[in-house]
Design brief:
Blueprint lengths: L27 E4 L2 E4 L10 H5 L2 E9 L2 E2 L2 H14 L8 H14 L5 E8 L16 E7 L6 H6 L1 E5 L20 H12 L5 E4 L5 E4 L3 E6 L2 E4 L10 H13 L4 E3 L4 H5 L3 E6 L3 E8 L2 E2 L7 H17 L4
Helix pairs in contact: 6-8
């Protein structure tokens, strides 16, 4: 019987340019104790980070020469490594110094850091303990995830059909290299002509987007899903909850949120290291509030940008 070829779906590209790529033309990568040109930075095809997504990572921002919440990111990185019983081979203090050296060598005043631990080179079996030495590398580059106009006018997103993996199966507090759940939801967004998708948990509650945390505003009250909904407690999320919102006189509620509440919100915004703070104007083509970035969201975004421009907190 002849094989039937599967039809390949046509991808509907969004009207806005897809940004977020790295400029890797001149960068130096720190990998396993040495600096190499980005074109020569390599890991083994037997590395379990490649073979099985066995590893963890952090994305970190640089603003005006200061590394936003560097210590918090590295501590979370080591917590992720401990959760999967990966021994990175460096202490937290050593890793902080390595990151700073890589930023300095690349002369990057404003940019993005990707810090990665992989399980390292091993056998073709799953056993992680047959990988004797973990691999570590640090990338320092520029990044722009969304077009500037989206920060002014708001972005359109969809609700993904694919739910978040339950935290009982894969704890979202482990920022692992296995991002396939998020990637498949991201594909749904791209197929729909937008750049982000909101994901629900198995109980139908709002969780998070593919790469960002979500907040809603109703009658001046700001709410966001709790970590028990199956989300990553993002560093920018923490910054908004603990510093930025209180400075503007707002207290943020962490509580379960239904999809209906999101659609009925006056404002919706997302936070993330790469995304920063960005308002949402439409979800599944439904208008949120007035269909543009609201006043509170703009105030939070302005306060965030003021903070990182003047003296980005490194701890």
């Amino acid at each position: 019987m002849p094989l039937k070829l599967l039809a390949v779906p046509t991808v509907k590209l969004c009207q806005q340019p897809l940004r977020g790529c790295y400029n890797t033309s001149m960068s130096k990568i720190w990998i396993d104790g040495k600096f190499v040109d980005s074109s020569k930075a390599k890991v083994s095809v037997f590395d379990h980070g490649l073979l099985y997504g066995d590893g963890c990572f952090e994305g970190i921002r640089i603003y005006n020469g200061r590394i936003l919440k560097l210590r918090s990111h590295i501590v979370r990185m080591f917590e992720s490594a401990a959760a999967i019983r990966l021994q990175p081979g460096h202490s937290i203090d050593e890793m902080e110094e390595i990151v700073r050296e890589t930023v300095a060598l690349n002369e990057q005043k404003d940019g993005y850091i990707r810090l990665v631990f992989t399980r390292g080179k091993g056998t073709l079996g799953l056993n992680p303990f047959l990988c004797p030495t973990a691999t570590c590398f640090v990338i320092v580059e520029s990044i722009k995830l969304y077009p500037d106009e989206m920060y002014e006018d708001g972005m359109s997103i969809i609700v993904a059909k694919r739910p978040r993996v339950p935290k009982e199966c894969l704890d979202p507090q482990v920022k692992s290299l296995n991002y396939l759940n998020n990637i498949l939801a991201k594909i749904e967004a791209i197929d729909a002509g937008v750049l982000e998708a909101l994901m629900l948990n198995l109980d139908g509650e709002v969780a998070e987007c593919t790469g960002d945390n979500i907040f809603i505003i109703k009658d001046g009250t700001i709410s966001t899903p709790p970590t028990s909904a199956g989300i990553l407690h993002g560093i920018t999320r923490r910054l908004v909850i603990e510093d930025i919102a209180p400075e503007l006189g707002y207290t943020i509620q962490e509580r379960s949120i239904s999809l209906e509440e999101v659609f009925d919100s006056d404002e919706v915004f997302l936070t993330g290291t790469a995304a920063e703070v960005i308002g949402v104007s439409h979800i599944d083509e439904k208008v949120i509030g007035c269909g543009k970035v609201g006043a509170i969201t703009h105030a939070l975004e302005d306060q965030f940008r003021k903070m990182v421009a003047e003296n980005a907190p490194e701890d």
